[in-house]
Amino acid sequence: MTDLKSGLSRRTVIKGAAWSVPVIAVAAASPMAAASTTPNSVGSLVESSPNVKDTVLSASSSRVESCFPANNFSAPFNLIATITYDNSDPAFSLAGSTVTSAGGVWTVASRSATSVTLTATQTVTCYVGITGFELAYNAGSAVPPLNSLTLNISGVSTDGTLKIDGLVSALDGGPVVGPKVHDA
User: Fold this and answer.
1) Pairing between strand 56-59 and 51-52?
2) What does the pLDDT look like over 106-127, one tens digit per residue?
3) The predicted structure's pLDDT at residue 184
4) InterPro entries, per this entry (predicted)?
5) What is the rounded distance in angstroms from the CA atom of residue 167 to the CA atom of residue 181?
6) pLDDT classification of 25: cutoffs 50, 70, 90
7) Segment 57-69, tens digit of pLDDT
């Protein structure tokens, strides 16, 4: 039925309402898309002296070295350290691993026979070493086979704008792997 006073039909009103819904949905989605950001990489942490031994792994002074001159930053980061074992000798295990670090910065988030995850929140500054840790493992008689352990540390700034890509060895530019030789 047509409304003679206004010149609008029910059909015209419904068509107009149908077209307005997608416009509202698009307008509502745009601010959310604009608010999401992808963190900018500050590079990798570099471990200057990877020290993976038969009973302990030391990550002593990893630092971001690729930041000068483009990004001289200092920001709090949520860091994750992952130690993985390739399980090449089932007699060796990471299940009983414990961590020590200055000020108790690093804590064990999870552990199993083949992996340990540590977490920390600390300020990371361009070209300054992070607070490191020592991971003690396997108090038994078995030792990790050569090159069977891998260490990685990565993180994202607490505000979500910066990220650390991972950990590399200053000695060979690759991931930190060990032990390279067995303790004497």
Assistant:
1) antiparallel
2) 999 999 999 999 999 999 999 9
3) 61
4) TAT_signal (IPR006311)
5) 20
6) very low
7) 999 889 998 887 7
In the chain the first and final C-alpha atoms are separated, in Å, by 97
Domains and CATH numbers, the chain: 45-183 (2.60.40)
b/e code 105-122 from CB counts within 10 Å (16+ = b)? bbeeeebeeebbebebeb
How far are the Cα atoms of 23, 55, 72, 177 from residue 137, in angstroms, in the given order? 59, 5, 36, 15
Chain centroid to CA 102: 21
pTM of full prediction above 0.85: no
CA–CA separation, 61 and 49 (whole Å): 8
- Compute the distance between CA of residue 144 and CA of residue 169 in angstroms, rounded to an integer: 19
Residue for token pair 């307008």: 27
Percent of the residues in the chain that have a pLDDT greater than 90, as a whole number: 62
Q: Closest by alpha carbon to 63, among 47, 43, 83?
A: 47
Tens-place pLDDT, residues 136-179: 997 677 899 999 999 999 999 999 999 999 999 988 888 999 99
CB 46: neighbour CB atoms within 10 A? 21
SS3 for 74? Answer: strand
120/136 Cα distance (integer angstroms):
17
Q: CB–CB of 84/167 below 8 Å? A: no
